[in-house]
Structures are given as C-alpha cells and as structure tokens.
Amino acid sequence: MDKRTIIIVVLLAIVLIFWSQIAQQLGLVKPAPSQPPVTAVDTLETPASHPPITTDTSATYDTSTDQSGQVSPTAPAQIGETVPDSTIPEELMVVTTPLYEITFTTYGGGIKEIKLNQYSYYNGKEGAVVLKSADDPVVPDFKAAGGSYSAANLAFSTNDQGFSLGESDTPRKISFVYDNQKGGKIIKTYTINPDHYHIDLDLAVEGIETFGFERSYQMAWGSTPPPTEKNIEDDYGQYKAVVMLDDYEEIDDYDNGVMNQQLMGFTRWGGIRTKYFAVVMIPRTRNADGMKITGQKWDALIDQDKVEVRKISVALEMPIANYGTTADNYTIYIGPIDYNRLEEYKIGLEELASLGWKIIISWFSIGIIWLLPKIYSVIPNYGIVIIIFAFLIKLITYPLSRKQNLAMARMKDLQPKMKALQEKYKTDPQRLNKEMMKLYKTAGANPLSGCLPMLPQLPLFFALFTVFRTTIEFRGASFIGWISDLSTPDPYYILPVIMVIVMFVQQKMTMTDPKNKMLTYMMPLFFGYISLSFPAGLVLYWTAFSLLSYAETLIIRKTSSTGGDAVVVQDAT
Questions:
Q1: Tens digits of per-residue pLDDT, 67-90?
Q2: How far apart are CA 176 and CA 293, in angstroms?
Q3: Which domains does the chain possess?
Q4: Residues whose CB is less than 8 angstroms from the CB of residue 141 and which lie 6 or more positions away in sequence, other chains included
C-alpha cells in the first residue's frame, strides 16, 4: 500500500471516528444538547424533577363528589362536561391478526395495548414486542381546548366485541361512541387491516356547539414505546419525534431535559420512532396545521449502567368548526421501520429508515436492502449472504482493483529510479518534479491510480455501516456460533481480530515503500480498534472483502509474472 492509499484510508478512519462532529458542522445532524446531572435510580422511574408526561387514567373515574353531588374528576376540567361515574365498567376488546394484537378499551374509546406478533425482545424480556403499553394513556386521543379536554377521560360505549383475522380475511371495523346527552357525540371507528401494519381511524364529532370546541383540536399519541434492544442506551438514543412538513424532520431538541415544540405549517404526518419501530399518524382527509411535541429525558441507572431514558408525546393540530359536524380520516402506522414496506405508502414514510446522505449514500443503502433479502430468500443465513455480497462487490470492482495492483507494482519497480532522481535533484525541487512526472509518463504509472480505485468503496462502506446498524432485516440475524446478532458488535471481538490479521498480511504483501513499514503494523491495529463498536455484519463484510482482495492480489501477481500483465519500466533518466 503506497503513501497516498494510506492517507485515503487514514482519512476514512478519521471520518468514521469523528462522523458525528463532521455531520454537525455540515448541518446533517443537530448537535446533542447538554446533559442534566445523572440521577442514580434503580428502575425506569422518573426523578422527582421530571414527572412522567403520562397521566393516571384510573384517576379519571374517581368516585369522590363535591357538595353539589357531582363527580369530581382528578383530570383537568373539561368544557361543559362531567367525567363519567366509575360505576360504568371498562370493557376490553382484543383484536388479533397475524401481525399484531391490539387491546381496545371503552375508557377513552381507543387502544390500550399493542403487541407485534412477529417481533421479540432482545433485552431479556420475553414475549412479543409491545409498542403501546397498557400503563400509558389510551391512544389515539382526541383533545381540544389546548389539551384540557381529553377523550381519554370519557367512557365510550360499543356494540362490538373482540375478534381474530387471518391474513386473507377482509378488513373489519370496531366502533366507539361517546354521547354527551346534549346532542353531541364523538365517534371513533377503527378499521383493522390483517395484512398491513396500520389501522384506519374515522373520527366524527357531531354537535360541536354542545361541546364548546372552537378553532382546532388535536389528534394525540401520548405513549412512548418501551425499549426493545439489548443495548438500551443505544435504543433510547434513537427515540425521536418525526414529522413530514415540506421535508422530513427528526426532532430531538431538549432544553434542560424537557422538549416542548410547536411546529406550524401543512403537516402530512407525524409520530414517534425508536431504533427499529415507529408509530405515525397520517391525516387522510386534509393535512394537519402543525404538530405539538412534548418530551422529557433523564438519566437512570439500569442494571448498574447509566441510561438516558426518554419519553415523547406528539399531537397533530387539526382545524375544527364551531358548530355542526367535523369528520376526519387517519391512517395510523404501528410497526417496524422496514424501508420496502414503508415505501409502499408513497408519502415519504421510507425516510424513517435513515439510510444516509440522500445524494450518494442512500442509493447504495437502498441497493443493499433490496439485494440482500433476495439472496437471503435462497440462502437463509445473513452471515453467508454478507460473504456472497462481498464476493459480488469484489467481482464488480475487479477491474479497478486490478488497475490498483498493477499501478502499485509499477510504483514499486520505480522506487530505485525515484530515489536516484531525488538524490540527483535534491537542491532543485522544480527540476525534480519535472523529472518525476517524466518518469511516471515513460513508465505508464500514475501515483494516484493506487488511491482512486478505493473511492467507490467509501459510500458503499458508509452505506453498509448505516444498513447493518439500523435496518430491521438484520435485527437479531445470526451467523454462526457466538454471532447471534449481526446488527450489534461481536461480543467476543473474534471478527475484529481476524480482520486485523487479514489486513496486516494484505498490507505487508502490497507495501511498496519500506518507509511505510510502521504503518503496515499500525493501520490494521487502528482499524481493529475502531471496529470493536461496529456491527458484526459490517466487520464480517470487511473481513471477507479483505480475504478476497488478498486472493485477488495473488492471482494478479501470478498472472503478471507469467506475462499476462507484464510491468515494463523504461529508463527515464
């Protein structure tokens, strides 16, 4: 490896290490806010200075009464409404499909719990992933009067029961009605789609004047999905509010541990994302006028590790008339951040996949997540798929690699002549440069040709890093033995060690300048160190690619030595 190649590799490593700082300077990501002091607690309980953003829905049905004999709610006062008596029993309806299990409740006329049947935890918990906990408020929630009126505080009625749907069954509806006994009603009708990760909601508010609503209402999602991954700190680090205004935005701005933002403008959709899952509310009748985001974060000790816990709530701002009836339709996506699945909605939901810089890297990422699952459908082991992928990339880049190897061989043969020129013209830099260029031209060598073939690998490398770290297809994908999850680092560092050995042998074989001997030892160690935190899938790819490159170099050298690509260096002095 010549000096310029080493410089390119070093720059790549520096970019990888300081990517977050570089991205902040370029404006690609927003700088992380300052962190509040660590609060040592043993559970996910919120510190006293940061009370939970969720409310106790059971308090809504408090039976205490005031002197007038009316029920006294513990929730904020409502507009001309009385909280239902606690004698109204809660009814639960469980709806199951091959993809999820949803528990509906008449308390709030919405969703009490959501489980994804095809995804499991990787943080020690058992059972299906829960995207909406039964301990959080009912969602989606109809709110008005700046949020002081909440349908979660109301007892709805229904004539429907729970049911199960098969993948080929037709969608089925379930409805909830709240009647204020003054001519006003709030009607929520959900359509369950058995073969998609979304439900449809038809909302109707009749007799608006009897409620006292005016100007706007909110469609709110006040439940943060629980963490699902083994590395809880990394999982929480991906918790963000997401919104599609003119462009896709991820909101992660906290001020002293509190987030409170009001976004204005036509809003196509908004929601909450975690590392691998998302909940998104999509207005279908009309765009929202904006979105309100509230959230909190605080430090907690979980299993003796400091974890920054996050809670986020979002609410779409929707206009409403002062009288008559308002009706809006929503699609609510509740499921994995799967690029191919999200792209089918044709409204920009695939932006949730965060596949890298749109101009270059995202295209490589899209190609990777298109090709690898197709290979996996034939060979159901993503470790082997990655090795096959490395082989395909090596075939594609073979012409460039061949050119690189031959250029390095020419440069190595030129070393004695270059050294002679340096000695001869050491006091005349301009003449030295002229003679060096003449030598390169006569020998048919290009000092940059050893570096240029590496450039196409850079966006591919960044794309692979993004895909293996954030794409749900690789979540929990195993290879062999100790590598049970290619999306997380090798727990025993075996792959990084193998990679270091392969890189050392390869560099030692391709070294053209003895002065670079120290770098031959240092570079593999350096790359091995930074790869300790890389996803195992990325390290496996790089190791396989390096092994293939080593074999390729042997073949090219053998071919060259037999006359296939003879390297001829004429005397240019």
A1: 333 333 333 334 444 444 456 789
A2: 27
A3: 39-352 (2.70.98.90), 366-397+456-561 (no CATH)
A4: 108, 110, 150, 151, 152, 218, 219, 220, 221, 222
